[in-house]
Amino acid sequence: MSGILVVLEQQEGRVRRVSLEACATAVRLGQGAVSALAFGPGAEGLAEAVGSQGVEQLLVLSASPFDRYSSDAFAHAVVQVVRQTEPSLVLFGATAFGKDLAPRVSGLLMAGLASDVTAIEADGDDVLITRPVYAGKAFQRVRIAGTPKLVSLRPNVQPAGAGGGAPARVSVPTVDVPAPRAVVTGTERSGEQLELTEASRIVSGGRGMKAPENFRLLDELAAVLGAAVGSSRPVADEGWVPHSYHVGQTGKVVSPDLYVAVGISGAIQHVAGISNSKCIVAINNDPDAPIFKVANYGIVGDLFQVVPALTAALKAHLDAS
Amino acid sequence: MKIAVLVKQVPDTATRIQLAADGSGIETANIKWVLNPYDEFAIEEALKLRDQHTGEVVLMSFGPARVEEAIRQGLAMGADRAVWISDEGVADVDYLGRAQILVAALQQESDWDLVLVGKQAVDDDAAQTGPLVAALLDWPQAMVVLGLAVDAAGRRITATRELEGATETVELPMPAVLGAQRGLNVPRYPTLPNIMKAKRKEVRHTHAAELGLDAAELTAGRRVRVEGYQLPPPRPEPKVLTGDPAEAAATLVKLLHDEAQIL
Ligand SMILES: Cc1cc2nc3c(=O)[nH]c(=O)nc-3n(C[C@H](O)[C@H](O)[C@H](O)COP(=O)(O)OP(=O)(O)OC[C@H]3O[C@@H](n4cnc5c(N)ncnc54)[C@H](O)[C@@H]3O)c2cc1C
Ligand SMILES: Nc1ncnc2c1ncn2[C@@H]1O[C@H](COP(=O)(O)O)[C@@H](O)[C@H]1O
Q: Closest approach of chain B CAs to the CA of A172, in angstroms?
């Protein structure tokens, strides 16, 4: 048992960023050769992208039934590839795909899985793992006994490599899986909105926004910043924004470089979901709002004046640089 | 339709998490325990399906004696009966061990059509139990479900699940494991008469030995081992700007550029 296997996620012929982060993490751990497994049509085309992260071998399963996702068929395939290649560690992204697949693989292999991991370090042949619990109100340090060890990595936490390596060597493993039972029959994109859990900048609005149409102010700020738009829970519950915007302990837990909280009081459930952000900016007209306790920077003022002013100041800054 | 809903009791989301003095766990002294919020969506969906297709809804919970309170809450929502699997000797199992225990409890009975779980428990945030149970039972699964339709014959499911910036439709046969996401439904509140009725509903107690499991083996064989806990590092003292909005905004942009180096 040696080496690391990364289970890749591709989207329309491109490796998702979280998978590049996983490849770079695997290489950084320095525990043997890194292979990657890719599913779906065009999977062999990912050799360059993963090679640039230091992956040596790309295993591809592009033909039917791997042309569309099925948790049961994909899990059986991962299990068979693991049995053939005997990695000591298998990395997934903690995305909808990875969160669905990794625990199913864990159950089939009876191998331990640490999910949504934010830090992983080599310790000889072993790995030391840190993962948030209670939506980030605390962190657990865990070890996994036995092999292979399974880990899903939270997106946007580990750096991806600089690139430059040679394309990975492509091979096609032989797997024999039972007919898929849970089959994806359609996918619907919900607009052009950037995904919050993967965004490096987020502008979020709360009840202080007063009405759904005022989210336009945040859209304008987000456009200048290249940010995704999020919200507190009551605002999503009111239907001002889609449910997918809701950030916090019972919504999305995010870890951007910059989180701008606008008209959000900073309730404990909201703060839990953003505490991993590198920099938090709060805009609120109440100087005693709890959000200021977790913010790096704050502006006390009326958001209907501050947000347009901030959008203008950012535009001026970008134009000047 | 015979539906099991796996329910977990967790600290209320308003809880300020503090560590036990030796860092081995969290301080549980003054915690208010509640039904995991996602499990309420799972129970509600099970009740709706039962009401459409007839049948029964059985709650199952693994944990210490306090979990009976969460079980009673689910019974007060309208579930028919419950199984409580106590944790003496196996309090320290990992996710796989916990799933093995829940699966053994499910296998004490037959004829299940569905097992519903929450998409994740808001304490360990593992999001593992649903797929683990599905894998151990060799049933298909759909997790993070936002919408659900069962065909008239009660044999096939069409589920909508949430992805990043998208939703997908999954079709699967029953029996299956489904994981409930917020948005699937609006859980009903227990009414007073139903709270009274719930007190008389059956909560059957079982434990590892009765399920044919060896507690010592399950504990010793755990693969994911928690070595300790820590709190997030304290956040730095905030710089709060007041006064003219345009000036404050310009100062903030400068700070984000020069000091935070984010722009
Ligand atoms: C089980 C449970 C789970 C929960 N999970 C979540 C979760 O995951 N995420 C979440 O967000 N919440 C969650 N909540 C709700 C949470 O407790 C708070 O109620 C919620 O976060 C408050 O939202 P808010 O900050 O938008 O609204 P409010 O608390 O009403 O705050 C509005 C803020 O806007 C400011 N404001 C008003 N007008 C202006 C103005 N003109 N200019 C500037 N500022 C202004 C006010 O000063 C105030 O601070 C949960 C609650 C429960 C019970
Ligand atoms: N101890 C338990 N007893 C019963 N159900 C559980 C237990 N732990 C987890 N579950 C179920 O599995 C879901 C996901 O939990 P987790 O895998 O811990 O995130 C929960 O929402 C419950 O439905």
A: 25
- Determine the 3-state secondary structure of B225 from DSSP: strand
CATH class of A4-171: alpha beta
Name A160's Cβ contacts closer than 8 Å, sequence gap at least 6.
Answer: A17, A20, A21, A23, A24, A53
CB-CB contact of B49 with B3 (8 Å):
yes
Spell out which residues of chain B touch residue A262, defining contact as CB-CB under 8 Å.
Answer: none
* Nearest-CB residue to A299 (from B122, B231, B241): B241
Q: Which ligand is nearest to the CA of B74?
A: 2
Instruction: Identify from B219, B252, B259 which residue to disrupt to test chain A contact, counting A C-beta atoms within 10 A and taking the largest count.
Output: B252
Per CB-CB distance under 8 Å, the chain A contacts of B242 are: 287, 299-301
Mean pLDDT of A191-208: 89
Looking up residue B10, the CATH number of its domain turns out to be 3.40.50.620
pTM listed for this prediction: 0.94
For residues B64-84, give the mean pLDDT.
98
Q: Is B214 part of the contact surface with chain A (CB cutoff 8 Å)?
A: no
- The residue-averaged pLDDT of B83-106 equals 97
Give the tens place of pLDDT for each residue, B193-219.
Answer: 999 999 999 999 999 999 999 999 999
Q: Are residues B83 and B148 in the same domain?
A: yes
- Do B193 and B237 belong to one domain? no
Q: Do A138 and B19 touch (CB under 8 A)?
A: yes
Distance (Å, rounded) from C-alpha A114 to C-alpha A129? 8
B233 touches chain A (CB under 8 A): no
Provide CATH 3.40.50.1220 ranges for chain A: 196-320
ipTM value for the complex: 0.94
Is some CB atom of chain A closer than 8 A to the CB atom of B136?
Answer: yes
Two tokens at B99?
A: 């799933």
- pLDDT one-digit tens code per residue, B137-148: 999 999 999 999
Residue A139 sits at the chain B interface (C-beta within 8 Å):
yes
Check if CATH label 3.40.50.720 holds for domain A196-320.
no
Q: What is the Cα–Cα distance from A85 to B149, expressed in whole angstroms?
A: 40
The rounded mean pLDDT for chain B is: 96
Q: Please tell me whether residues B257 and B198 are part of one structural domain.
A: no
Q: Are strands B33-35 and B9-11 parallel, antiparallel or unpaired?
A: antiparallel
SS3 label, residue B84 = strand
Domain ranges, residue B249:
232-263
pLDDT the model gives residue A192? 63
